[in-house]
Amino acid sequence: MPSAQPKKKSVSLDREALVKKYLPHVKRIVHRMAVHLPAHVEIDDLIHVGVIGLIQAIDRFDASRDNTFLTYAVFRIRGAVLSELRSRDFLSRSSRKKVRDLDETFHRLEQQLGRTPDEEDMAEAMGISLDEYFQIRRMASISFVSFEELGIGAEEDRSSIVNSLVNNTSNDALSLTRIKELKEAIAEAIEQLPEKEKLVVSLYYVDELTMKEAGHVLNITESRVSQIHSQALSRLRTRLRKQGLV
Predict the structure, then answer these.
(1) Domain definitions of the chain by residue range
(2) What is the rounded CA–CA span in Å between residue 246 and residue 239?
(3) Which DSSP string do the residues of 35-92 spell out, in sequence order?
(4) What does the DSSP 8-state code read for residue 114?
(5) Under 8 Å between Cβ of 221 and 46
(6) Phi, psi of 142 (to 5 degrees)
(7) Considering only the top CATH level, what class is 1-90?
(8) Which of 2, 31, 102, 239 has the fewest Cβ atoms surrounding its Cβ within 10 A?
(9) What b/e sequence results for 143-161 when a residue is b if at least 16 CB atoms lie within 10 Å of its CB, and e otherwise?
(10) Mean confidence (pLDDT) of the chain
(11) 164/183 Cα distance (integer angstroms)
């Protein structure tokens, strides 16, 4: 009985040490996402939420699985921040409908114009101001697809999908099939992107550069990187919807 207290203290100290160690990752994830957020969203609030996601990752990580803690933590941190944004109505159902309208308008105009539509083309076709268009584009860049769009509503189902994605294992054959189809479709769709869009996707998601850093690499402005990134995600989401995967 007397030995129980030191053990609790040790676990607490381990958690505190891990939070300190991985806090820079929380800040980097939040700041990468914040590029697409309106100025009124407090970054410190999102960092706090991200830390909660990190603590959940520490408490739930299964070291026996074939994956690294950081990989698992990134899922949890991003998930916590996205949930917070959803609770603030920033990623609400009506917001996601606006993103779908943006994707459909982009695809239609590209076919009609025979070129990539610019911001003015998009705003005019959607019947909105440029400021409104930029706001929707920021929303479209935060989350590629939502769990709801994948038909996953319950929290336990989301946790199962996250664990399956990170561990590449699942007891749920349906989840595994869905994940396999989605991975293959995304990989194929990325291969068919225009070269510049493919490069931006690679720099942002594989090399984990910020929009600003990607701009330095490509010798273009951060705003232009954001535009190319948005175009790439619109193409990918449109393709997945056509295939009935979202």
Answers:
(1) 1-90
(2) 9
(3) TTS-TTS-HHHHHHHHHHHHHHHHHH--TTSSS-HHHHHHHHHHHHHHHHHHHTTTT-
(4) S
(5) no
(6) -75, -50
(7) mainly alpha
(8) 2
(9) bebbbebbebeeeeebebb
(10) 80
(11) 12
